[in-house]
Design a protein that fits this description.
heterodimer, A: 447 residues, Alpha-Beta Plaits, Rossmann fold, three-stranded parallel beta sheet, 16 helices, elongated, B: 149 residues, alpha+beta, globular
Chain lengths: 447, 149
């Protein structure tokens, strides 16, 4: 049993070690051994970058199959807001929700109103908060894991307000079990996820023992069936579900959506892992103390850019913006009642259950004296390497290779550039041997 | 400088007026300290102190050498710069005192918090300067109460 659950799995039959994932992984968590990719569990932050670049589709996200639905007496689909951006402009969220019911879910819950409530709860938290800044949103599970692994000292800046999907699932289970006279465990809630990272945050939440959700189905898996299911629905038969659509909540699908819908002035939003890293470096240096709130997403453009979505991320970003406009035009309820939210907030309704703990990378050695010695060895090895990060040894960079050698996970002779040296040493030896035997021979015949 | 058996020594160069690269040394030091398992609260202080020192070099000095030594007892960061130096160290150590130009202030620097901030984050701090020649800063973090992971 391994310590960390990951949503990413490598199909070794399909993998032929082409190294795309090796080069892409932002945390250097992949190695190629015996021509197959392997993931180093404690380094992986489940961002899903490797899934998108694999030319053989050998890296597969572990999401739940449809079949899981039959385990429950009542099932509820909870689509993440990016699902609304996957279809043409004429297909509004109400039709999508109706389509999900057509597909076999007993109910489909629009997450946007709860996202809106959580946005307000964040606003409340920001208003009352007096500690060091900037505060960081926990909307993206990859960002949370990145903080746990690489920026453990930023954990105290994360906002302890729970995620909309968790609150939604918790509440709908309470409500439906009462209404239907069922036990809470008989109600299955399924999140329709745009990325594999949300899968893990359901299988293995970073802050608590167990998620309120029962599974996650990828948007890519449900897209085709849902499109077919929606064709059969007549317009007008599902109108009422649009009444609750919340503009504030739809913003959760995209980079900057929370700041934008809350009209937070002193905040910033960042998406794409390299950019997130540079902003977090600046927070660590103490450069962003004057910013109140930071939204950070591992995927470019936010959740619409998730690796399990269908539509091009720039198009879907634009669709979300358009959807907000359309809903405003149709005079749909723009936001939840702030007074209600405040009441619930005081009752700790939105509070995150549990706490994020640091998950720092394992040091070179537990003993500091030995760790220092190994760090010096690593440096010495690195100096002798070509520093071109070719990856042929199976490590992503020369620096990681040096570390792998020090940790006993690779041999220094695995570097292809050590071959000529070895070869010349060997041939020198051979020549010498030949020479010796030649003179011996000569010695015999010509005394 | 020769390494002793239990000591790790590194040398970095910080270029003057190179704002785009400022902060790289503190990031490299952070990664090194993480690798050898230094506790994150000490790393955080070391990063802030090094970054402030780097910014001081970028803004005021001509160039500087940074020497890092780590042994099981302490982290020692020494920055030796060549430059205008500081005429009144006591004044420079006061919070809010700054000789920053308007351009620097526009970039969000020059609040007069740099040196005091380094001192606040360090366990031991020493500064000496020769006006017209340069300034040396020693920043020390003690590891004796360290917790290793």
């Amino acid at each position: 049993m391994s310590l960390y659950f990951h949503s990413i799995h490598i199909d070794t039959d399909k993998c032929d070690g082409r190294m795309k994932c090796l080069r892409t992984c932002p945390t250097q968590a992949i190695r190629i051994r015996d021509r197959k990719a392997k993931i180093i569990e404690e380094k992986c932050i489940d961002c899903g970058e490797c899934i998108s670049v694999c030319p053989n589709d050998a890296i597969v996200p572990l999401t739940d199959p449809f079949g899981e639905l039959s385990k429950f007496k009542h099932t509820v689909a909870i689509p993440s807001p990016p699902l609304y951006a996957q279809f043409g402009r004429e297909i509004l969220p109400d039709k999508i929700l109706a389509g999900l019911k057509e597909l076999g879910f007993d109910d489909a819950l629009d997450l946007a109103p709860i996202c809106g409530e959580v946005s307000f709860a964040i606003q409340e938290y920001l208003r009352e908060y007096k500690g060091p800044k900037p505060l960081i949103s926990i909307a993206c599970p990859t960002v949370v894991r990145l903080i746990q692994v690489k920026y453990p000292d930023l954990i105290d800046l994360t906002i302890p307000i729970d995620l909309p999907r968790e609150i939604a699932s918790r509440e709908i289970k309470k409500k439906k079990s009462k209404e239907l006279g069922l036990k809470e465990k008989d109600i299955g809630t399924f999140y329709l996820t745009p990325c594999p990272a949300k899968m893990i945050s359901i299988r293995q939440p970073a802050e608590k023992g167990k998620s309120h959700l029962d599974g996650a189905i990828s948007i890519t898996d449900i897209y085709g069936p849902l499109l077919t299911a929606m064709e059969g629905i007549e317009k007008g038969s599902y109108r009422e579900s649009l009444e609750n659509i919340c503009i504030l909540g739809i913003g959760w699908a995209m980079d900057g959506g929370i700041c934008r819908t809350l009209r937070l002035k002193n905040s910033l939003s960042v998406s794409g892992l390299p950019e997130v890293l540079s902003v977090f470096d600046d927070i660590e240096r103490g450069k962003l103390r004057n910013i109140d709130f930071i939204e950070a997403y591992s995927c470019p453009q936010g959740c619409v850019g998730g690796s399990l979505t269908v539509e091009n991320l720039y198009i879907s970003y634009n669709k979300i913006v358009q959807l907000i406009d359309t809903l405003q035009y149709e005079k749909i309820k723009a936001c939840p009642d702030i007074r209600e939210v405040r009441k619930l907030y005081k009752k700790k309704y939105f509070l995150l259950e549990g706490k994020f703990e640091p998950r720092p990378l394992i040091p070179l050695d537990k003993d500091l004296t030995k760790a220092i010695k190994k760090r010096k060895e690593k440096e010495d090895i690195y100096v002798s390497l070509p520093k071109i990060d070719c990856g042929i040894c199976g490590s992503p960079t020369c620096l990681t290779f040096a570390e792998d050698v020090v940790m006993g996970k690779a041999k220094s002779t695995d570097c292809i550039f050590s071959f000529p040296k070895k070869f010349s040493a060997l041939s020198q030896e051979m020549l010498e041997l030949l020479d010796k035997s030649y003179f011996k021979e000569r010695g015999k015949h010509e005394p | 400088m020769k390494d002793s058996e239990n000591e790790l020594s590194k040398h970095y160069t910080i270029a003057s007026a190179d704002f785009s690269r400022a902060g790289q040394v503190s990031t490299q030091i952070k990664e090194l300290l993480q690798e050898i398992g230094i506790t994150s609260s000490i790393i955080r202080r070391a990063v802030i102190a090094t970054y402030e020192a780097e910014m001081n070099v970028v803004m005021y000095a001509e160039e500087a050498e940074l020497f890092l030594t780590v042994n099981p007892e302490k982290i020692h960061i020494r920055i030796e710069d060549k430059g205008q130096g500081i005429t009144d160290i006591n004044l420079a150590m006061q919070e809010g005192f700054s000789t920053a130009t308007d351009e620097m202030r526009e970039m969000g620097f020059g609040a007069g918090m740099g040196l005091p901030n380094i001192k606040r984050n360090a366990d031991k701090f020493n500064i000496s300067s020769i006006p017209g020649k340069g300034t040396s800063v020693d920043i020390i973090f003690c590891l004796n109460q360290r917790e290793n992971y």
